[in-house]
Amino acid sequence: MKLENHLLSILESMHDAVLVISKDSTIVYVNTAYSVQFGVPVHKIIGKKLSKVEPKARILEVLKTGQPLINDYSYLDSLNIHIFANMTPLIEKGELIGAVAIMKDISEFYALQEELQRYKTYSTQLEKQLNQKIFSLLESHAPGMRQAVEMAKKVADSEATVLLFGETGVGKEVFARAIHEASPRGDKPFVAINMASLPESLFESELFGFEEGAFTGSRKGGKRGLFELANGGTLFLDEIGELSLFLQAKLLRVLQERAFIKVGGTTIYPLDIRIIAATNRDLQKLMREGKFRQDLYYRLNIVPIHIPPVRERKQDLPILMNNILSELKSKYRKQVTVTQEVYEIFERYDWPGNVRELSNVLERMIAVCSKSYFVPEDVPPFVREGSVLSESPIEPSRQYASGTNALNLPALIEKTEKEMLEEVLRTSRTRTEAIRRLGISRKTFYQRLKKYNIQ
């Protein structure tokens, strides 16, 4: 079989478009695929000069140079399409007689590429909106707070360990949750551990879990520890400065090796977690005093973020109060507004317990309020008077005299303190929840219960 006898049949059977031009750029042949794909009837193109139909056609370069163009991209103005082509010269007896192009219409590919770009842009916009929603509870007008939030947003997408510094009640866990939710691990577990609440004797079993039969009375089937529960997600180590040196060493070993062994077991479990730690202590001072390990500090202090106290960002009080009240209104099924007088009282108070104290005060107010708005009388006396619910024992012997009338201010504070304790206990499911809402230590909490004879 001679190939030239079947050449046209071969060209016609191809799925790719074929164009053949002579040396003077006259179109001498196009196959059926060309006509179908580009929508050009054969009889309307044969015999025309390509240099006039498509002056910028890349195949004209092949006629000029005699060199092929392989895997070449071009845009055809006359057909309004993008093509991908292999173009080669036609040589007969050593002389250039024309050129042939085998082409693919890649307009659909370009359309898909543009659609993909639009999707990426849309996805970026959605991600920004999502981050704004995630960090909405941290909205602020104060420069220090805005700086902290911006740093949290920047670091959220990474795996970097974050160390949150701030006084009790500033919202360190809110920060940690926001960082977690805005991270690639956002759909994985977020496990928060209050390191101060873990007794040394239970530290390993709570964090690492234990195997069945690890000790007398151990649960059948063993127990999964908090590290295992957080695997794949984020582990929030709150109050990291309260750990003893002995427990710091155990924690450091796990963080370094990224693996742990359950109590009573021998299997090594790999640990894939993002660490966020928090403290209200001065860790550098603790290091100088030999109470905090330097190696653990440098392991945790990759990205430090300082969260300013409420007294340094009182311009945020309306935002904070609105966020807190939106939840409390739903919880208590009440609609209340805040008068300007109440705002002014709140601005004069320094909020030593920070956002946690603010939340507790607002919850007390909404719980006892019988109107549709707060008035100064709804504000607890210690806030109105600018005094503080302190963790240190109050000396009842101290008195303050104003003119001829003696006012026992400590007694007034004690009365308010007792009422708040009773109210929080009444509206809390557990004492642990009450301690969290009050923003004081467990030790102080039980001292107060004993002091006021609250059962």
From TrEMBL:
The entry's keywords: ATP-binding, DNA-binding, Nucleotide-binding, Transcription, Transcription regulation
Keyword DNA-binding annotated: yes
Start and end residues of each Sigma-54 factor interaction domain: 138-367
Listed transmembrane segments: none
PAS domain location: 3-56
InterPro entries documented for this protein: AAA+_ATPase, AAA_lid_NorR, Homeodomain-like_sf, HTH_Fis, P-loop_NTPase, PAS, PAS-like_dom_sf, PAS_4
Keyword Transcription: yes
Pfam families, per the entry: AAA_lid_14, HTH_8, PAS_4, Sigma54_activat
SUPFAM superfamilies assigned: Homeodomain-like (SSF46689), P-loop containing nucleoside triphosphate hydrolases (SSF52540), PYP-like sensor domain (PAS domain) (SSF55785)
NCBIfam families: sensory_box
Name assigned to this protein: Sigma 54-interacting transcriptional regulator
Organism: Aneurinibacillus thermoaerophilus
